[in-house]
Amino acid sequence: MSDRYCVFGNPVGHSKSPAIHALFARQTGEDLVYEARLAPLDGFAAAVRDFAAGGGRGANVTVPFKEEAFRLCDTLSARARLAGAVNTLSFADGRIAGDNTDGAGLVRDLMENLRTPLAGRRVLLLGAGGAARGALGPLLEQAPAALVVANRTAARADALVRPFTALYPQTRLTGGGFDALADLAGGAFDVVVNATSASLAGEAPPLPADAFAPGALAYDMMYGQGDTAFLALARRLGAARLADGLGMLVGQAAEAFFVWRGVRPATLPVLAALRAA
Ligand code: NDP
Questions:
Q1: Residue from 196, 207, 244 to probe ligand 1 pocket by mutation (most atoms less than 8 Å from CB)
Q2: Catalytic residue among 4, 21, 37, 66
Q3: Which helix (H) or strand (E) holds 269?
Q4: What CATH code is carried by the domain that includes residue 59?
Q5: Cys-Cys link to 34, which of 5, 54, 91, 161 (CB 3.0-4.6 A)?
Q6: CB–CB of 116/98 below 8 Å?
Q7: In terms of domains, do 124 and 189 share one?
Q8: Ligand 1: centre distance to CA 122 (Å)
């Protein structure tokens, strides 16, 4: 019988993860099935335990359960601990191991698919919610020269960066409100990542006119048809390159597949298949 995996979310019907993992399985010859499972808002832990008891080998976790998944795990990877959230569960010997592959998926999309080096560059991360928190450690691992976290609620950005400053002394790391961007903290940015959910409401975080350095990449974690509000603003402000978050989604899935199967699937053909669909 094929090994069983799933993604838990609420809602989860829109999830592209079953399609992505089916393409990975076909590409690598791994024998597995992967389904979407709706967990009740007050029944996530029971749904996970039920799936594991029924022979499930692992699961992804999406909105709104990533922090609850963090609390449910018996063991945590270092990157899950730093992120304070879990998107990848592995079940073995009656225990639950938690990992977080979101930030690795973003960095892989930036560096490999979009050929955007981060070392020595100036990076702006907009937002201080779960997605920003998951991305911060993996971005800092690449040793950018400066990383500014800017958020609508300044105190959240401040609190987010504080535990990371001592861990990554090679990067000038600062956090604040959007108004702190007015002086661009010392220059325009080479990479601007939108990790706010403003695009969901058709809004863009306020950016200064000179936010983008020559050749800069504007990256929205959100994805969908056409430009998001953030990408449309970035285009108007002269960002040289634009990308949405579909590559991050495929990247985090590839990293989860590697955690479970020890095989790293190629992401570009899967990304191309999703875009074509
Ligand atoms: P959270 O709810 O945890 O955080 C939301 C963030 O957006 C907060 O920083 C919030 O600021 C900010 N925000 C919300 N509305 C506005 C607005 N109108 N203007 C400016 N800032 C705003 O969400 P997540 O971190 O989980 O998700 C953020 C985005 O990332 C979503 O669009 C999600 O779809 C996407 N995502 C994509 C992934 C992928 O694989 N491509 C993976 C994970 C997330 P404040 O603190 O002031 O409230």
A1: 196
A2: 66
A3: helix 268-276
A4: 3.40.50.10860
A5: 5
A6: no
A7: yes
A8: 21
User: Among the atoms of ligand 1, which is closest to the Cα of residue 156?
Assistant: 46
Distance CA 242, CA 230 (A): 10
Q: What is the CA radius of gyration of the chain?
A: 19
Residues 252 and 223 placed together within one structural domain of the fold = no
Residues recorded for the chain: 277
**Prediction pTM value:** 0.95
16 among known catalytic residues: no
Q: Are residues 107 and 27 part of one domain?
A: no
Task: Enumerate residues lining ligand 1, CB below 6 A.
Answer: 102, 127-132, 151-153, 156, 195-201, 203, 205, 221-223, 245, 248-249, 252
Please check whether residues 63 and 13 belong to one and the same domain. yes
Asked whether residue 240 falls in the same domain as residue 107, the answer is: yes
Residue labelled with tokens 């990554």 = 168
Question: Token match 């304070």: residue?
Answer: 84
Domain that holds residue 194: 103-244
Mean pLDDT of 76-91: 96
CA of 54 to the centre of ligand 1 (A): 34
> If we measure between CA atoms, which residue out of 62, 57, 13 comes closest to residue 32?
57
pLDDT in tens, 128-172: 998 999 999 999 999 999 999 999 999 999 999 999 999 999 999
Place of tokens 């955690």: 259
For residue 132, how far is its CA from the centre of ligand 1 (angstroms)? Answer: 8
For residue range 169-221, list pLDDT tens digits in order.
999 999 999 998 876 666 899 999 999 999 989 999 999 999 999 999 999 99
